[in-house]
Design a protein that fits this description.
two-stranded antiparallel sheet, 105 residues, SH3 type barrels, mainly beta, 10 strands
């Protein structure tokens, strides 16, 4: 079970975008993920008439390492660490380490 999943609200804790929030758009298999509106770069695109792609400078999100982000805790309004515990009925759930609140209902 992963501690951070697609659709989670996360906060960047290190790097040039430190403190910015966004939703996880996509998880990549090598420990990286794409966060909406974070780590944007300008990429020079060559035009490709066969695919209908216009050339120019495009702004796009680049992957962040999973160690550089933390889940946003709405109760404390801060970034928080996440743990995994097993409930009495055998289900695994994620919870915030600071207040013990369970994420997955």
């Amino acid at each position: 079970m992963r501690k951070i999943r697609k659709g989670d609200d996360v906060v960047v804790i290190t790097g040039k975008d430190k403190g910015r929030r966004g939703l996880v758009l996509r998880m990549l298999d090598d420990g990286h993920l794409l966060v909406e509106g974070v780590n944007k770069v300008k990429k020079h695109m060559k035009p490709n008439p066969a695919k209908g792609v216009a050339g120019g400078i495009v702004e796009k999100e680049m992957p962040l390492d999973i160690s550089n982000i933390a889940l946003f805790n709405p109760a404390t309004q801060k970034a928080d660490r996440v743990g995994i515990k097993v409930l009495e009925d055998g289900r695994k759930v994620r919870y915030f380490k600071s207040n013990g609140e369970v994420l997955d209902a």
